[in-house]
Amino acid sequence: MKKTVFIPLTFVLAIGLTSCDFVNIPDQPGSVIDTTSSTVVRKVLVEDYTGHKCTACPAAAIVANSLTATNGENVVVIGVHAGFFASPTTSGTQYLEDFRTSAGTTYDTYFGISNIGNPNGMINRKYYTSSTTAHVLAYGTWATEVAVELAKPALAKLEIVNSYNTSTQMLTCNVNSTFLYDTLTGGPYKLIVMATQDSIAADQLDAGLYVPGYIHRHVLRANLNGVWGEDLTTGAIIANLAINKSYSYTFPATYPSSGGTSATSFVASRCHIVAFIYNDVTKEVIQVEEVKLIP
After folding, report:
1. CB 100 within 8 A of CB 86
2. Residue 84: HSE in the Cβ half-sphere, 13 Å Cα cutoff
3. Is the CB of residue 222 less than 8 Å from the CB of residue 20?
4. What pLDDT shows up at residue 24?
5. What is the mean pLDDT of the chain?
6. β-strand 254-255 against 120-123: which pairing, if any?
7. Measured between alpha carbons, how far is 169 from 251 in angstroms, rounded to an integer?
8. Where are the domains of the chain?
9. 155 vs 5, 42, 55, 177, 288, CA distance in Å?
10. Which of 62, 105, 119, 160 lies 20 to 30 Å from 81, alpha-carbon distance?
11. Start-to-end C-alpha separation, the chain
C-alpha cells in the first residue's frame, strides 16, 4: 500500500500564557494517494452532551463507553460539557470544575441539545434541520444508530500525524483528507480538528449522589481550526486526492487556561486529536478519525 509522504514542518517554540490560540500553517500541496490497495473503514462520531450536575448523564457515558469497547477505533466519542448542568458553582466546595468550551457551547446552542434536556447527543450529526429536533438522540438509541452508520461504506479517508514537543507543550498536527468518490453532493464539505482529554477525576452528580472522584471521559478541550472548521472543497470533488491541512497549537497547563479553582490540569498522555469531515449544508459527518497526542 502506498503511503502519503508528509512534508516536515519546522517547530515554532511557544508557550501558552493566558489563552490557547491556534495558528494556521499554510496548506501543503495536494497529492494523489492510493486508496485502492486497502480497505478504508467507515468510522462513527458519537457526541455525548453532558454536565457534572446532570444526575442522569453518567448513564449515557456508560453507553458511549460501551460503544467504543464493542467497536474499538471505529467509534469516536466526544464528551461535550455545555448548558446549565455544565456550569460550575461559584461558592462552596462542589462542582467547581469548568469543562465548558466556546465550541461546545456554540454546538449546544446551534443544535438545541440542552434545550431538550440532557443526557442527549448526536450520532454523526445525522437528521439535522433547522425546524426539527430529530437529530437530538436519547442515549438509548445510540447503539442502533451507530450500527446503521457502521454498515455504510466509507466515503472519505482521514489521516492524522502529530508532532508534540513535551517541553513547550506545542503540537504540530498534519491532517490528510481524501474523498473516495467524486459523486458526493450537497456540500461544501468542511474539516473540524479538536483536542480531547480522557480520564479526568472530578465532581459529578450520579443518580442523585455526589461523586467527588468521578472519571470524565473524552472531554472536549479545544478546537484547533475554529468552531466550524474550514472548507475542504467548495466545488467539484476529486476522488483520491489528498487535501493537506496543518495546524500548530500550544496546550495550556490547565483548562480554563486562566487557572483558578475551576481549572483542571492538562495531561498530554491522556489527550487525543479528533478530526472529522462534514457536509456544511446538512451538518452530517461522513468520516472521523482519532489518534493519541503521544502514541
Report:
1. yes
2. 10
3. yes
4. 38
5. 88
6. unpaired
7. 5
8. 22-292
9. 22, 7, 38, 11, 11
10. 160
11. 22
User: Pick from 271, 278, 293: which is nearest to 221 by CA?
Assistant: 271
Strand, coil or helix: 23: strand
Q: Which three cell numbers stand for residue 130?
A: 433547522
Residue 186, pLDDT score = 72
Q: The whole model's pTM is what? A: 0.87
Q: What is the DSSP letter of 71?
A: H
CA dist list (Å): 197 to 237, 266, 287: 33, 8, 21
Quick one: which of 245, 292, 243 has its CA closest to 272? 292
Residues 189, 58: Cα–Cα separation, whole Å: 33
Q: Which residues of the chain have pLDDT under 50?
A: 1-37
The region, left, alpha or beta by phi > 0 then psi within -120 to 50, assigned to residue 181 is beta
The pLDDT, as a whole number, for residue 295 is 87
CATH topology of domain 22-292: Immunoglobulin-like (2.60.40)
Q: Give me the pLDDT at residue 233, please.
A: 86
